[in-house]
Amino acid sequence: MTTKRTLAASTAVVMGALALAACGGSGDTGEGGGDGSVEMTFWHNSTTDDGKAFQQEMADAFEAENPGVKITLQVVQNEDMDGKLQTALNSGDAPDIFMARGGGKLADIAEAGQVMDLTDLIDDATSDALGTTIEAFTVDGKVYGMPTAVLPGGIFYSKDLFAQAGIASPPTTMAELEDAVAKLQAAGVAPIALGAKDAWPAAHWYYFFALRACSQETVEAAATDRSFDDPCWTQAGEEYAEFAGLEPFNEGFLSTTAQQGAGSSAGLVANHQAAMELMGAWNPGVIGGLTPDGEPLADLGWFPFPQVEDGQGDPTAMMGGIDGLSCHVDAPAECPEFLNFLLEKDNQEGFAEAFVSIPASKEALGAVTDPALREILAAYEDAAYVSVWLDTLFGQNVGNALNTAVVEMLAGQGDAESIVATVNAAAAKE
């Protein structure tokens, strides 16, 4: 990865590649020594059996190497994480270790003094293995989190359903995607699964239309100035509304969840009830957990978001997330030690296998064997730049306003202009 390729986060844009536990909350700074004097709480969003088992295995292994340390894990549904974490941080009863998404969301927490500065606490070996992905967790030159997974987005699809509909190859342009939608509809297949009940999956479509409509410089400016007056932001909404007018999404998409059960958008793809889904690189693992046999979907493929005519954005640009972990500002000294432990090569390889995902450590990329993920890696290496998800880049308040406005447009309660107006209004309040 090179520095030009990550559109990451600080107070500016960096360019380059659970219920609370009653004991052991933030501020328990015991010295250990085998007597259970150091207790840490760890919030994560791993709801699959393999994911939960891996997180517990890592906690157990760290405890075995560090007598006196006890880590209590708590699972939080992904869609609930940001809200619950913010409430816990504001109440002063936050977990010691928590999921971090970087971007403006992390910058807000850092500005509030609620997260530990890890700049001088990252092992040299860890830093070397992470490379420029660490920039996504850097705010004003200081590091406030350690990345665990690189999660570029794109469109996952069923090769079998494409073949049945007579689609010879994945679409590369919006016109080709529209043609694929028509062929799937004619074949009696829902073209695209969308879990709009959770808002962010519906907004992801707007993000990608904006990535194609807006130049890199415009996205940079919006991240720093919080101004969305460039015509490309409206253009993105108009193009999205036009595409949605083709009725490409599954029936009842406004009330469909993204990842919870066979009826979710991921479940529809897993059970061949829909042909495509726009999602991040965690999707193969989620889909695999929802197939009838609980195994990876054998015919799952992936292609980048198509090119859009008259756009100012680079057609190879990608968008996605870099998931990681942070320590509460008052967490014990063992917290950053645990993060370094998680990022050891063997543990990152285990992460990749358990979650069917792309690890942040360059040393562990050999563990990525899923064909769809290999396709994502190839596109990622060729991308002109990579932006984090817009709701992450712009921070929680502006991001939530954007997501909500997009869903309102799909529900017929707004339009492209109202999306821009809503986001500008939210930005003006910051």
UniProtKB/TrEMBL annotation:
Keyword Signal: yes
Organism per entry: Cellulomonas xiejunii
Signal sequence residues: 1-21
Keyword field: Signal
Listed name of the protein: Extracellular solute-binding protein
Pfam families in alphabetical order: SBP_bac_1
Source taxon at top rank: Bacteria
Sequence intervals crossing the membrane: none
